[in-house]
Amino acid sequence: MTTTRCGSIMLMILFILYKGVRVMDKIASFQVDHRKFGVGMYISRIDGDIVTYDLRMVKPNGGRYISSPSLHTIEHLFATYARNSFMRERVIYVGPMGCRTGFYLLLRGMNHEAAILLVKDALKFISEYEGEIPGATEAECGNYLEHDLAAAKEDVKALLSALDGYTPKHLVYPQ
Prior knowledge:
Layout: H1 3-21, E1 40-47, E2 50-56, H2 68-82, E3 91-96, E4 102-108, H3 112-128, H4 149-155, H5 157-162
Antiparallel strand pairs: 1-2, 2-4, 3-4
Helix pairs in contact: 2-3, 2-4
């Protein structure tokens, strides 16, 4: 056996041992008690100048979840609105939560008041939207047939209403 082959085998063994004993840290969003909050906007985490906002549209584990077609439509409309807004340069990501209770919004270098305003404006835009869904053609989207504008318009209303009078002090998860 050559030295190179012996070294490669040792690296493989070390890798297997490392992977076998590694305990993964619980991510920030799993450390929040989902029984203690409902519809609202919260700060999920802050990484340098990037803030991840939790936009909760239905109560976690409340028995009602956003349908996939509605979630998909909200994603297209929210992302399009945010990336065409006065804060477009600060928008990093808008995307749905796998649990289908809301969205994550990642913004860079924006104060919380402006973030709340952006979310309110985007939700109002969605609630009143008429027309073709942006990016909903076969060439533009990997699941272009799965959209539901009527449901999306209805699904944004609870969070839009909850954000009435919202200030940065409301962005903290209840303990």
